[in-house]
Amino acid sequence: MKVRAASLPAGHIDRKGKAIRWSLFRRLEFLFALAAVGAIWQLVSVAVGNKTLVPPPLLVIEAWLGLWRSDLPTDILASLVHLGIGYTLGTLTGLVLAILAARFIVVEAIVDPLVEVLRPIGAIAWIPLAILMFGISRSVPIFLIFYASIFPIFINTLAGVKQVDQQLVRAGQMLGASPRIVVMHVVVPAALPFVIAGARLSLGVAWMAMVAAELTGADSGLGWRLFWYQEFFAMDKVMAVILTIGVLGYVFDTLLRRLQARITRWSPESALSDP
Amino acid sequence: MTDAQRRWIPLLFFGSVVLAWEAAVRASGQSALASAVVPSPAGVAIAAARTISDGTLAAATAGSLFRVLLGFTIGAVLGIPLGLLMGFVQPLNRAFGPIVDSLRSIAPIAWIPMALLWLGIRGNAAVFIVTYAAFFPFVVNAVQGARLIDRNLVNAARALGARPALIVRSVILPSALPAILTGARISMAFAWGSIIAAELAMGIKVTSGGSGAVGLGQLMVSTLYIRRDVNALVLYMVVIGVIALIIDFGMRRLQRTLTPWRQP
Fold it and tell me: I need a labelling partner for B191 at 20 to 30 A (CA). Which of A209, A243, B68, B137 fits?
């Protein structure tokens, strides 16, 4: 879809054509880098000579395609179920706790120190306790994801609600808005960018917790499958699962990033942060 | 609510929770010793006394910290130059940026099976995971640091006759240092989390014989499966948290000392 310069008014800068060419160019650069990495990988694999130690890229791709026909869909589904349940429950809990803490200062006085104390411990340190409580099962990753998801969204939502410009709230009240309208039309939109940022951070830690928990304490899911293949020394399949984990994680983060961009597009962030 | 109230309310609340917890555990008839199913505050204290006095806690913590420092250093040595280079040379950044981002989205622990195959059980696989985790924050923040360097300053130094070494020492490094130190702080936090995860995974999944160096993660696993001491488990969790706090506090201190001009 090239814009012909002749049909444009004189002096017009062909921005659209430039933008299209530029994005194509960037894609090429990325592909080139990808090819370079693939080439180095292939060289290393050939140099080492051992297909188990360093599986060549083509072998990994072949294994990955083969896995689609056997275990991969089941594993992906299991992992997504773990993530879905844990993340949803965790973010809801964190959200509710933050709202309560913002509304009732007693709640904040209790929950905030609790969060500050528990957060450094990290979700991963809970794994042995979780295994003791639930045994090796899918409850371990679900619990761990749930626990890990609470913290980022709680902290960010609380900060977001607290930074709402009180002048806006007072302006709304002065103009006669009921408390419900003030909350729905002033507080929520102002806090929303922070909430979505917290949701995105929660997803990040949830994903890490999922891999760690499945690796050590579950009997299903992508993380568990890693060691399953390792025990057969099917390292090409292990690499295939690793790549799947990476790609899926990247996809989820990108989805939330797009959502975040859309939501923060209309919020006048710069206006709020000016003193 | 006054400031004093804000400090006392949580203390009172948690104090009473701890007391009630201890009372409940005592009332249910379990002794506060090992092999209890439910952890109790007194039990945790007893476990603490035991593991500190017989040195297991200190040895395990030292082992973990050593591997964290090793991985952190290697990650810094590899990550900072790469990040600075990528920040200076835009085509490199555009080409390798997406690749770095993609690798970054793979959780470090997922590499354990491969790391175990390449580096063996005796601790080096854990160091690899830590290095991997520490590497990316350095790269990302070094790129940021390189971008922040004011070209005018570099040109001014050159115009005044400074040799490249002096320019690097007095202009480039101080300009990039705040971002690099932020990267160091994040890396250290990631590194500490990763070593625990790696040691846990190695302890749980590698059943073939003793695993050489023992860290906190492996200690937790042996407590889980062999001793079955819940109180010790809770104690180790607390230790992990305390060390994380100390690390964060220390890194922030370091940042303030080395870059006092930085506006937080």
Answer: A243
Residue at A10 is within a domain: no
Domain count across chain B: 2
Cβ contacts of residue A146 below 8 Å, gap of 6+?
Answer: A85, A86, A87, A89, A90, A93
pTM to 2 decimal places: 0.82
Verify that A45 and A159 share a domain, yes or no.
no
What are the chain A neighbours of B201 within 8 Å (beta carbons)? Answer: 212, 215-216
Summarize pLDDT for B48-96 with one digit per residue, the tens. 777 777 777 888 888 899 999 999 999 999 998 888 888 887 778 877 8
Indicate if the pLDDT at residue A28 is higher than 80.
Answer: no
Please identify every stretch of chain B with a pLDDT value under 50, giving residue numbers as ranges: 32-35, 209
B10 Cα to chain A: minimum distance (Å):
5
CA distance B14 to chain A (A): 8
Q: Is the ipTM of this complex over 0.95?
A: no
In chain A, whose CA is at the least distance from the CA of B236?
A125
CB contact (8 A) between residue B99 and residue A129:
no
Whether residue A160 is found in the same domain as residue A42? no
Asked whether residue A12 is domain-assigned, the answer is no
With beta carbons under 8 A apart, name residues in chain A contacting B105.
246, 249-250, 253
Chain A closest CA to B257's CA: distance in Å?
A: 23
Residues A95 and A229 in one domain: yes
Q: Give residue B20's domain range.
A: 1-24+39-44
A150 and A239 inside one domain? yes
Same domain, A106 and A43: no
Residues B91-111 have pLDDT tens digits of 788 778 877 887 887 888 889
* Nearest Cβ partner for B113 among A26, A36, A238: A238
